[in-house]
# Entry
Amino acid sequence: MVVKVFKDKASLGEFLAERVKELIEKKPDAVLGLATGSSPLATYAALARLYKQGLDFSKVTTFNLDEYVDCRIEKETYRYFMDENLFNKINVKKKRTHFPSPETVGEYDEDIEKAGGIDLQILGIGVNGHIAFNEPGTSFDSKTHITDLTESTREANKRFFNGDISLVPYQAVTMGLGTIMKARKIYLIANTEEKTKAIRSLLNEEASVKLPASVLISHPDVTILLTEEVNPVF
Ligand code: GLP
# Structure
């Protein structure tokens, strides 16, 4: 794993957006794996700027990592998040943007394969080390599946639901850890101080299902993107 440290979220986002640009210029029909949450926001803003400067997303296909099940607030669905923060700001074709759902859960991995596999996967990381919604204990070879959210994840995400944990869904559909590991290139973003503990474990400990992100240790092409406040040194 390669680690890069940036002075702030904006410069990290610029860096990653440039890597996406390089990929799309080389391969206009690239397949991107996308994440929600606050971590990739600066990257998406930078991609919207690159689109205005001429980057063409019209042949790009996207697969999002996860989606809530039975989300009662439409504005908090991950589809809505992606439309607002990226898809409505670039010229990606909506029919080429994919999200897992209870109806398609069994076909999502196959759909990714049929599209040619993910060229570049963007990941955030949960405070408890989860990636997508693969909570601690998830098998490293898991495929896209429905999962129960842990109390700590529901607690962390209630900020998006007017601070009311009762509105946070109990389940989500998520790419599995095995699904994510098939991506050819992976960038994991951690850009807030609260992620330090998970990042230290990832960089200093052996792989364990207790820390879902540690599955990445055996991937051949992972880059961890940190801001200075996430200090990985003990
Ligand atoms: C959520 C998402 C993850 C995301 C993580 C971190 O629960 N399912 O895909 O990476 O939490 O979110 P944030 O970037 O807002 O800290």
